[in-house]
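comment on this one:
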Amino acid sequence: MHEQWLHDCGERIVIAELQGYLFFGTAHRLLCGLHARLAEGDIRSIEFVVLDFRLVTGMDSAATASFLRFLRYLDATQTQLVLTTMAPPLQHVWTRELGAETAATQCQLFPTLDQGLAWCEEALLMDGETGWGVAAPDVAPPPQPSVATFLAMVQASLAQSATLEAPSDLVPLQTRLTRLTVHTGDLVVKEGARLDGIFYIEEGELMAQTKSTDGRKVVMRRMQQGAIFGEISLYTTGYASADVVARQSGTLTHLSRQALRELEASAPLPAIAIHRLVARDLSRKLIQSTRGLGILKR
């Protein structure tokens, strides 16, 4: 699915994490290293260079001039430059030295590295060669394969552990699951709202999206049938970092924190199976977030 395809083309994104105060010498060394890295990876196969400024304390005009030359090099090779976590003072220097038009049209700027990577991944997914692009109006989207229900996933997890004694073991879970029907465009989770439990996509497709600093919509993640989201809310009282919107109509299964606590007290075996499923899903996402991207540090 989406995740597997992104895993296969991860080398098309290169990341550099910048540190400290950037002046001409440090910027020159960094960009020489990037030139070498791009040459090793075959610049024709690299579509995005992401520069993360989270640990940068300042930057002078000479350093910006080096970045401008690097930007021209990327433009000549049709490689997109993406800047992330750039503090307002750095943005001011960048825009002043490069010019507002160049800064706005030849770079993509995002407040966090995750958002910048999400934008790159979305661009890759929308590439016509992937088959995941937006279908023409008269072309039906490819059918999605059937997936197991949340209840079936828990049952399979129990069976693997040889702990399922009878089908009735799942009744306490079944009675605590809420089934939700969503339609295209529905707002399922609002950014900033407190999350309560996990959601499992039985049918349809959802996307997590937020806005960049200049108000543009940024798609953080696409989620298809069989995907789980909201896992962190089982263990924290955190808030949603993005809107979750239905991209296609479908059906969700929801399990609240309170329902899980009740299961832990009255039916611990299904509760343990759910925790295992969540741990496996979180581990998979962690592995994906660190997949084969070239990370350079000055």
In short: The chain has ten helices and eleven strands. The longest helix spans residues 268-289. The chain has a mean pLDDT of 77. The radius of gyration is 22 Å.
